Amino acid sequence: MAAVDGKSKVISNQWVNDNYKHIVVDVGPIASKVQPGQFFNLSCPQVGTDKPFFRRPMSTYHADKNTHRVEFLYKVTGAGTRGLATLKAGEDLSFLGPLGKGFSLKSHYRHILVVGRGVGLATLAPLAEHASSMNIQVTAILSAQDSGRLMSQHRFHDVNATVFEVTDDDGSSEVDKVKALIEEINQKNKIDSIYTCGSVRLSKLLQQLAITFDCDGEVALEQHMACGIGMCYCCVRPIKVGEKQPQVSKRVCYDGPVFQIKEVVL
Ligand code: FES
User: Fold this and answer.
1) How far is the centre of ligand 1, averaged over its atoms, from the C-alpha of 249 (Å)?
2) Centre of ligand 1 from the C-alpha of residue 252, in Å
3) What was the pLDDT predicted at 159?
4) By C-alpha distance, which of 9, 56, 54 is closest to 31?
5) Which end of the chain is less packed: N or C, by CB atoms within 10 Å?
6) Is any atom of ligand 1 closer than 6 Å to the C-beta of 236?
Protein backbone atom coordinates (compact mmCIF):
# COMPACT_ATOMS: atom_id res chain seq x y z
CA MET A 1 0.00 0.00 0.00
CA ALA A 2 1.27 3.49 -0.85
CA ALA A 3 2.04 5.97 1.90
CA VAL A 4 -0.86 7.98 3.26
CA ASP A 5 -0.75 11.79 3.43
CA GLY A 6 -3.04 12.24 6.38
CA LYS A 7 -3.85 13.77 9.73
CA SER A 8 -3.35 11.85 12.96
CA LYS A 9 -4.63 12.53 16.47
CA VAL A 10 -2.10 12.79 19.28
CA ILE A 11 -2.85 10.26 22.02
CA SER A 12 0.08 11.15 24.31
CA ASN A 13 3.46 12.90 24.16
CA GLN A 14 5.58 12.25 27.24
CA TRP A 15 9.21 12.75 28.29
CA VAL A 16 11.09 9.49 28.81
CA ASN A 17 14.31 11.15 30.06
CA ASP A 18 16.02 14.56 29.87
CA ASN A 19 16.40 14.45 26.08
CA TYR A 20 13.82 12.13 24.59
CA LYS A 21 10.05 12.19 24.21
CA HIS A 22 7.66 9.41 23.25
CA ILE A 23 4.71 10.39 21.10
CA VAL A 24 1.74 8.13 20.35
CA VAL A 25 -0.59 9.06 17.48
CA ASP A 26 -3.62 7.49 15.84
CA VAL A 27 -2.93 7.29 12.10
CA GLY A 28 -5.88 5.10 11.13
CA PRO A 29 -5.79 1.74 9.27
CA ILE A 30 -2.44 2.48 7.61
CA ALA A 31 -0.88 1.47 10.96
CA SER A 32 -1.37 -2.15 9.92
CA LYS A 33 0.99 -1.70 6.95
CA VAL A 34 4.02 -0.39 8.88
CA GLN A 35 7.13 -2.58 8.63
CA PRO A 36 10.01 -2.47 11.16
CA GLY A 37 12.59 0.06 9.95
CA GLN A 38 10.14 2.25 8.02
CA PHE A 39 9.59 5.88 8.93
CA PHE A 40 6.98 8.63 8.81
CA ASN A 41 7.46 12.26 7.83
CA LEU A 42 5.83 14.40 10.49
CA SER A 43 4.76 18.06 10.11
CA CYS A 44 6.16 19.73 13.19
CA PRO A 45 4.25 22.73 14.57
CA GLN A 46 5.73 26.21 14.25
CA VAL A 47 6.22 27.65 17.71
CA GLY A 48 7.59 31.15 18.43
CA THR A 49 10.72 31.72 16.37
CA ASP A 50 10.95 28.03 15.43
CA LYS A 51 9.59 27.73 11.89
CA PRO A 52 10.36 24.20 10.67
CA PHE A 53 9.63 24.12 6.95
CA PHE A 54 10.19 20.51 5.97
CA ARG A 55 8.51 17.56 7.63
CA ARG A 56 10.82 15.59 9.93
CA PRO A 57 11.55 11.89 9.36
CA MET A 58 10.86 9.67 12.39
CA SER A 59 11.51 5.94 12.62
CA THR A 60 8.54 3.97 13.87
CA TYR A 61 8.99 2.72 17.40
CA HIS A 62 5.79 0.71 17.45
CA ALA A 63 2.73 0.24 15.26
CA ASP A 64 -0.48 -1.46 16.39
CA LYS A 65 -2.81 -2.71 13.67
CA ASN A 66 -5.73 -3.06 16.12
CA THR A 67 -5.64 0.38 17.78
CA HIS A 68 -4.23 2.16 14.67
CA ARG A 69 -1.65 3.76 16.93
CA VAL A 70 1.92 4.46 15.82
CA GLU A 71 4.62 5.49 18.28
CA PHE A 72 7.81 7.46 17.83
CA LEU A 73 10.72 8.10 20.17
CA TYR A 74 12.52 11.35 19.38
CA LYS A 75 15.32 13.51 20.72
CA VAL A 76 14.35 17.14 21.22
CA THR A 77 17.21 18.90 19.46
CA GLY A 78 16.07 21.52 16.93
CA ALA A 79 13.21 23.61 15.62
CA GLY A 80 11.23 20.62 14.35
CA THR A 81 11.45 18.41 17.40
CA ARG A 82 10.97 21.39 19.76
CA GLY A 83 7.68 22.03 17.96
CA LEU A 84 6.76 18.36 18.11
CA ALA A 85 7.45 18.39 21.85
CA THR A 86 4.70 20.99 22.39
CA LEU A 87 1.91 18.76 21.05
CA LYS A 88 -0.71 17.65 23.54
CA ALA A 89 -3.19 14.79 23.61
CA GLY A 90 -6.12 15.51 21.31
CA GLU A 91 -4.20 17.79 18.93
CA ASP A 92 -3.73 17.04 15.23
CA LEU A 93 -0.45 16.02 13.61
CA SER A 94 -0.09 15.79 9.83
CA PHE A 95 1.95 12.89 8.55
CA LEU A 96 3.12 11.16 5.40
CA GLY A 97 3.89 7.48 5.74
CA PRO A 98 4.87 4.81 6.16
CA LEU A 99 7.91 5.53 3.99
CA GLY A 100 11.07 3.75 2.87
CA LYS A 101 12.20 0.16 2.93
CA GLY A 102 12.41 -1.61 6.25
CA PHE A 103 14.34 -4.57 7.64
CA SER A 104 14.11 -8.03 6.13
CA LEU A 105 14.07 -11.34 7.99
CA LYS A 106 14.43 -14.70 6.26
CA SER A 107 12.35 -17.63 7.42
CA HIS A 108 15.40 -19.89 7.78
CA TYR A 109 17.08 -17.60 10.34
CA ARG A 110 17.41 -19.17 13.79
CA HIS A 111 19.37 -16.43 15.60
CA ILE A 112 19.85 -12.74 14.90
CA LEU A 113 21.94 -10.07 16.60
CA VAL A 114 20.70 -6.49 16.96
CA VAL A 115 23.12 -3.79 18.06
CA GLY A 116 21.86 -0.27 18.66
CA ARG A 117 22.81 2.96 20.32
CA GLY A 118 20.70 5.87 21.47
CA VAL A 119 17.52 6.31 19.51
CA GLY A 120 18.74 3.56 17.16
CA LEU A 121 17.42 1.18 19.78
CA ALA A 122 13.93 2.51 19.09
CA THR A 123 14.32 1.58 15.42
CA LEU A 124 15.47 -1.94 16.29
CA ALA A 125 12.82 -2.77 18.92
CA PRO A 126 10.03 -3.51 16.36
CA LEU A 127 12.47 -5.74 14.45
CA ALA A 128 13.18 -7.79 17.59
CA GLU A 129 9.43 -8.23 18.10
CA HIS A 130 8.89 -9.27 14.51
CA ALA A 131 11.78 -11.77 14.72
CA SER A 132 10.34 -13.23 17.90
CA SER A 133 6.95 -13.69 16.20
CA MET A 134 8.81 -15.78 13.58
CA ASN A 135 10.44 -17.89 16.34
CA ILE A 136 13.84 -16.40 15.61
CA GLN A 137 16.06 -16.08 18.67
CA VAL A 138 17.24 -12.51 19.33
CA THR A 139 20.41 -11.32 21.04
CA ALA A 140 20.49 -7.55 21.63
CA ILE A 141 23.43 -5.32 22.52
CA LEU A 142 22.15 -1.98 23.78
CA SER A 143 24.68 0.84 23.91
CA ALA A 144 24.52 4.28 25.56
CA GLN A 145 26.66 6.87 27.32
CA ASP A 146 25.48 5.62 30.70
CA SER A 147 22.82 3.29 32.06
CA GLY A 148 20.44 6.22 32.63
CA ARG A 149 20.35 6.86 28.89
CA LEU A 150 19.63 3.29 27.85
CA MET A 151 16.18 3.08 26.34
CA SER A 152 13.70 0.43 25.32
CA GLN A 153 15.28 -2.42 27.29
CA HIS A 154 11.83 -3.72 28.20
CA ARG A 155 10.90 -4.11 24.54
CA PHE A 156 13.77 -6.56 24.08
CA HIS A 157 13.23 -8.34 27.41
CA ASP A 158 9.52 -8.72 26.58
CA VAL A 159 10.37 -10.89 23.57
CA ASN A 160 12.84 -12.99 25.60
CA ALA A 161 15.86 -11.56 23.83
CA THR A 162 19.24 -12.15 25.46
CA VAL A 163 20.17 -8.57 26.36
CA PHE A 164 23.63 -7.09 26.95
CA GLU A 165 23.86 -3.48 28.09
CA VAL A 166 27.12 -1.66 27.31
CA THR A 167 27.94 1.90 28.34
CA ASP A 168 30.67 4.52 27.89
CA ASP A 169 31.00 5.27 31.59
CA ASP A 170 32.33 1.80 32.45
CA GLY A 171 34.13 1.33 29.12
CA SER A 172 32.05 -1.69 28.10
CA SER A 173 30.85 0.09 24.91
CA GLU A 174 34.38 0.35 23.49
CA VAL A 175 34.55 -1.14 20.02
CA ASP A 176 37.15 -3.79 20.94
CA LYS A 177 35.05 -4.97 23.87
CA VAL A 178 31.85 -5.09 21.82
CA LYS A 179 33.77 -6.99 19.13
CA ALA A 180 34.97 -9.58 21.64
CA LEU A 181 31.43 -9.91 23.02
CA ILE A 182 29.95 -10.49 19.55
CA GLU A 183 32.64 -13.05 18.68
CA GLU A 184 31.79 -14.93 21.87
CA ILE A 185 28.05 -14.78 21.10
CA ASN A 186 28.66 -16.09 17.58
CA GLN A 187 30.89 -18.88 18.83
CA LYS A 188 28.19 -20.10 21.21
CA ASN A 189 25.26 -19.60 18.86
CA LYS A 190 25.90 -18.91 15.17
CA ILE A 191 24.46 -15.56 14.10
CA ASP A 192 22.43 -15.69 10.87
CA SER A 193 22.04 -11.96 10.46
CA ILE A 194 23.19 -8.74 12.10
CA TYR A 195 21.13 -5.53 12.36
CA THR A 196 22.21 -2.13 13.58
CA CYS A 197 21.25 1.52 13.88
CA GLY A 198 22.46 4.59 15.73
CA SER A 199 26.27 4.48 15.59
CA VAL A 200 28.74 4.75 12.70
CA ARG A 201 31.45 3.24 14.92
CA LEU A 202 29.35 0.15 15.64
CA SER A 203 28.12 -0.06 12.04
CA LYS A 204 31.73 -0.24 10.82
CA LEU A 205 32.46 -3.00 13.32
CA LEU A 206 29.36 -4.95 12.33
CA GLN A 207 30.13 -4.56 8.64
CA GLN A 208 33.52 -6.12 9.26
CA LEU A 209 32.02 -8.91 11.42
CA ALA A 210 29.28 -9.71 8.88
CA ILE A 211 32.07 -10.36 6.35
CA THR A 212 34.13 -12.38 8.85
CA PHE A 213 31.13 -14.46 9.96
CA ASP A 214 29.87 -14.72 6.36
CA CYS A 215 26.38 -13.82 7.55
CA ASP A 216 23.69 -11.42 6.38
CA GLY A 217 23.39 -7.96 7.86
CA GLU A 218 21.43 -4.73 7.51
CA VAL A 219 21.91 -1.19 8.76
CA ALA A 220 19.26 1.51 9.13
CA LEU A 221 20.98 4.74 8.09
CA GLU A 222 20.28 8.05 9.78
CA GLN A 223 20.35 10.96 7.34
CA HIS A 224 19.05 14.50 7.04
CA MET A 225 16.10 14.52 4.65
CA ALA A 226 13.89 17.08 2.94
CA CYS A 227 11.12 15.56 0.79
CA GLY A 228 11.37 12.03 2.22
CA ILE A 229 9.90 10.54 -0.96
CA GLY A 230 12.85 10.30 -3.33
CA MET A 231 12.31 13.55 -5.25
CA CYS A 232 14.97 16.00 -4.05
CA TYR A 233 18.10 13.79 -3.81
CA CYS A 234 19.34 15.60 -0.71
CA CYS A 235 19.74 12.33 1.20
CA VAL A 236 22.02 10.36 -1.16
CA ARG A 237 24.75 8.10 0.24
CA PRO A 238 27.40 6.05 -1.57
CA ILE A 239 26.52 2.38 -1.84
CA LYS A 240 28.75 -0.37 -3.24
CA VAL A 241 26.69 -3.14 -4.83
CA GLY A 242 29.01 -6.09 -5.47
CA GLU A 243 32.76 -6.14 -4.91
CA LYS A 244 33.78 -5.24 -8.44
CA GLN A 245 31.00 -2.72 -9.08
CA PRO A 246 31.56 1.04 -8.88
CA GLN A 247 29.92 2.96 -6.07
CA VAL A 248 26.47 4.35 -6.79
CA SER A 249 24.49 7.04 -5.02
CA LYS A 250 21.27 5.88 -3.40
CA ARG A 251 18.55 7.85 -1.66
CA VAL A 252 18.28 6.95 2.00
CA CYS A 253 14.59 7.94 2.11
CA TYR A 254 13.53 5.92 -0.93
CA ASP A 255 16.09 3.14 -1.47
CA GLY A 256 16.52 2.75 2.31
CA PRO A 257 16.71 3.73 5.09
CA VAL A 258 17.65 0.05 5.56
CA PHE A 259 20.54 -1.19 3.41
CA GLN A 260 22.65 -4.32 3.23
CA ILE A 261 25.46 -3.64 5.68
CA LYS A 262 28.12 -5.03 3.35
CA GLU A 263 27.10 -2.52 0.63
CA VAL A 264 27.14 0.68 2.64
CA VAL A 265 30.19 2.97 2.46
CA LEU A 266 30.71 4.11 6.05
FE1 FES B 1 14.37 13.97 -0.88
FE2 FES B 1 15.49 11.70 0.00
S3 FES B 1 14.85 13.38 1.15
S4 FES B 1 15.22 12.33 -2.04
Assistant:
1) 12
2) 7
3) 94
4) 9
5) N
6) no
